[in-house]
Amino acid sequence: MRAVLPVVLAAQFVVPMSISGTAIALPVIAADLGSDPNPLQWVVNGFNVAFALFTVAWGAVSDRIGHRTSFRIGVVLTAAASLVSASASSLLVLDAARVFAGVGAAAVLVGSTSILSLHFEGAERTTAFALFGTVNGLGLALGPTISGLLIAVVEWRGVFAAQALVLALAAVGMLALPALRTHTTASKLLDFGLLRNRRFLALCLVPVAGAIGFVTLLTYLPAALSAVASLTPGRAGLFMLAMTVPVLIAPLTVSRAIAAFDAVTPDRVVLASLGCLVLGNLGMLTLQPGVPLPVVLVPMVLVGLGFGLPIGLVDGEALAAVPPHSSGTAAGVLNMFRIGSEAVMVAGYAWLLTLFVRGELPDRADADAAAAGQPGFADAYAHAFTEVIALVAAAVAVTAAAIIALSRRSGSDVSSANALSATGDPR
């Protein structure tokens, strides 16, 4: 039992790191293997799209072959695909490898949530899923910095080689995983009927807002820093600490604040995080040629706080919003929202950015180089970046409004139910 959590979390750490940490390598990959935007963007999108599509497929497969088996297949497949990625000689080979890595990562996610749900019960299961959510946040937050440092030391291939190494260690640890104790009466891994619970649905949308307003920037801001400010991947990765350090600090700070101050409640923390995401993204519009980079530090901190404040807290509140016997199922749905939205939003961001860059540069070769984040096209990239970030800020605001509306309606439902109970009304 002691080996379960470290093995699962180690393997899962690679998944969000693959989402956020790969794009920082695109400018140097473009210089090495070519800058055609379609295959180049699929270095990131191939993983993300395959991951999102195959998450549901692996859920059905895992029910037949066993969740431990699907987890093992996922770890081995992702590790092998990462090794192929590290040795790829062309963009097409790299794209294919990233697609297979995404397929394997989906099996890792499905297997992880199942293993945690079946191995832990009660408070231990709540803690395990809270750690699972925290590791996802850490993988996302540290992905660009870790990848940037690896690129500075061993070039872009080291990014994928490091992922393969972590997964290889997890593969060794899998040998210690005990057999799962399954029962025919076990609840479904993903029960979307839980979304009829308005509070649970509102909490599921919180990581969606984070995917729109934070994960997209976390993934592609390093390329923007390269294109607009001519930063190297190593320097861009270090600069990204302004966004990622708040993610590391905020969860513990929030936990202590809630324990110490009655005025600090989970709902207020969520509202504050949504406000930080909107304001931070609007502030990112200041990233322009000729504007000193320190100007964007405050918006970057706000974006990091917007993502970091509800980490772990959302998991606990979401599980508390459903019956105890549905906590494992609820965790699976929540993580589907979290990681599925990250994959979809990152792919959408890249598509929009490329579209807008092409609108700025009539020459196709120049547009391809600019979209890849290569220096020399600062004005065109900055204009496209401004258009995309404006849409991102608007999307976060709409999602925030939906969360607030659902939260208020769920509060009204609870008040009405309490009133009926007090009067003895059978309705």
Quick structural overview:
It is built from 16 helices and no strands. With 427 residues, it is mainly α.
Structure description:
- The protein is mainly α and 427 residues long.
- It has one domain: Up-down Bundle (Growth Hormone, Chain: A).
- The protein contains 16 helices and no strands.
- Helix 3 (37-65) runs antiparallel to helix 4 (67-86) and helix 11 runs antiparallel to helix 12.
- The chain is globular and about 60 Å long.
- The termini are far apart.
Draw up the topology in text.
Blueprint: H1 4-21, H2 26-33, H3 37-65, H4 67-86, H5 91-119, H6 122-154, H7 157-173, H8 198-229, H9 233-239, H10 241-260, H11 266-283, H12 297-308, H13 313-320, H14 327-360, H15 364-371, H16 378-423
Helix pairs in contact: 1-5, 1-6, 1-7, 3-4, 3-5, 3-14, 4-5, 4-7, 5-14, 6-7, 6-8, 6-9, 6-10, 6-13, 6-14, 8-11, 8-12, 8-13, 8-14, 8-16, 10-12, 11-12, 11-16, 13-14, 14-15, 14-16
How many β-strand stretches? 0
User: Distance between termini?
Assistant: 46 Å
Sheet/helix structural class: mainly alpha
Query: Which architecture per CATH?
Result: Up-down Bundle
Q: Could you tell me the mean pLDDT?
A: 84
Shape, principal axes of CA atoms: globular
CATH top level is Mainly Alpha
CATH superfamily: MFS general substrate transporter like domains
Radius of gyration equals 21 Å
Number of domains: 1
Poorly predicted regions: 414-424
- How much helicity do the residues have? over 70%
Task: Record keyword descriptors for this entry.
427 residues; Growth Hormone, Chain: A; 79% helix; mainly alpha
